[in-house]
Write a structure and sequence with these properties.
The chain is α/β, with parallel strands linked by helices and 386 residues long. The chain has twelve helices and 15 strands.
Length: 386
């Protein structure tokens, strides 16, 4: 899978731009605040219908414009797919091959992307909320069923929390409706937990091999799904549901007192263990970065396993945060199999041997100009090492 063509209208600082891309490496080079990250973000939004940088859709619309539009042509094994996403103050509208998508969740999955930005290096030591959002966004692309069950779980959870609050403040008396809502959150929660557990197991296998390669066999990485549903039940949806129902029953008094749901996958986490130690607590910054890199690279293989095609990889100024050795492992892992978009202010900070035959685009004030890769790389190679 790769993005053949992209057209933006009124997207952030891009009034209008239209360009084709290489199916391999695309380098976006330019000074800060010129629009490199905005262009990468537009590809992410085209795929996932939401930004990783802002929860306010109005931020995506060019100042003074009434709407923003992203058009893309995606090449897949079975042919080309034309995507369109229109963003306005009234909401979002999506089209697939000029036909309206009935809902955004049905639109997702037509273009699969993996974003790796400097903040993703905080995946290991960041908050559980960050890790839950990470697995939900990535697994939602791979599995429409996961995305649907997660959406239904969140809807039921919101209703249950509202009713628990009413019971706490005596605005409702009967707990019969609470029983109905509890059955719903347990059912959909069990499906979410089981899917997460299975996909994290598979991701862990890929990450373990990659991590061992990066550390030359010196370290062993394991991913643990930290769930209130215990390990023996976690991979089976029916058992996970039964376990959740039992936990809701045991914790009903506390939930009624606090007026909120204390049990469920919305409180779960992922733990990264390196050589039998929690790397978030006991690992060095280097170990944490290596772990984050291994996990992000494992996503590529997992997505290929689940969807049958490699995703598009978006690297937002991340190479400057990695040393030459980790840069080389990153680029070797994707070489000749994954379309990659890479933003940078300069090629000087990038190991010279890791980029082969790139398409290079200069970004300046929302304008995109394709440069001669040979000339740019020759100029770089002519510079003396610092």
């Amino acid at each position: 899978m790769y993005l053949k063509h992209l057209e933006l209208r009124n997207y952030r600082n891009y009034a209008r731009v239209s360009t084709d891309f290489s199916p391999q490496i695309n380098v976006l080079i330019g000074s800060n605040a010129q629009g490199k990250t905005n262009l990468l973000e537009s590809v992410y939004v085209l795929a996932l219908t939401r930004s990783h940088r802002s929860n306010n859709d109005r931020d995506l619309i060019n100042f003074g414009a009434d709407f923003a539009r992203i058009d893309g042509r995606v090449s897949r094994k079975r042919g080309n797919t034309d995507l369109r996403l229109v963003i306005s103050p009234q909401g979002k509208r999506a089209k697939v091959n000029n036909l309206d998508a009935p809902k955004l969740s049905a639109y997702m999955g037509k273009l699969n992307v993996i974003l790796f930005a400097p903040e993703d290096l905080n995946l290991v030591k960041g908050s559980p909320t960050l890790r839950r959002r990470f697995i939900d966004m990535e697994f939602g692309q791979m599995s429409p069923a996961y995305l649907a069950n997660l959406s239904l779980y969140k809807k039921a959870l919101k209703q249950r929390n509202a009713y628990l609050k009413q019971l706490k403040f005596h605005q409702a008396k009967s707990q019969t409706f609470l029983d109905v809502l509890t059955d719903q959150v347990a059912h959909y929660g069990g499906l979410v937990v089981a899917a997460r557990a299975k996909l994290l197991q598979d991701m862990g296998k890929f990450a373990q091999v990659i991590h061992s390669d990066i550390t030359r066999g010196g370290e062993q990485l394991q991913l643990h799904y930290v769930s209130q549903v215990k390990d023996e039940a976690v991979v089976d949806a029916d058992m996970a549901t039964a376990r959740l129902q039992d936990l809701y029953a045991k914790n009903r008094k506390r939930e009624l007192e606090q007026g909120t749901s204390l049990i469920g996958p919305h409180r779960d986490d992922v733990q990264f263990i390196v050589n039998d130690r929690d790397v978030a607590t006991f690992g060095s910054q280097g170990q944490q970065r290596t772990t984050a890199l291994a996990v992000k690279l494992a996503e590529i293989d997992l997505m290929k396993q689940e969807t049958g095609e490699y995703p598009v990889l978006l690297l937002d100024d991340v190479l400057s945060e990695l040393d030459d050795d980790r840069q080389t492992h990153l680029m070797k892992a994707i070489e000749d199999k994954v379309q990659t978009f890479l933003t940078t202010t300069s090629l000087d900070g990038i190991a010279r041997e890791i980029i082969h035959d790139p398409a290079i685009f200069h970004v300046d004030a929302g304008q995109l100009t394709r440069l001669s890769a040979d000339a740019v790389l020759r100029e770089k190679s002519d510079k003396p090492d610092q």
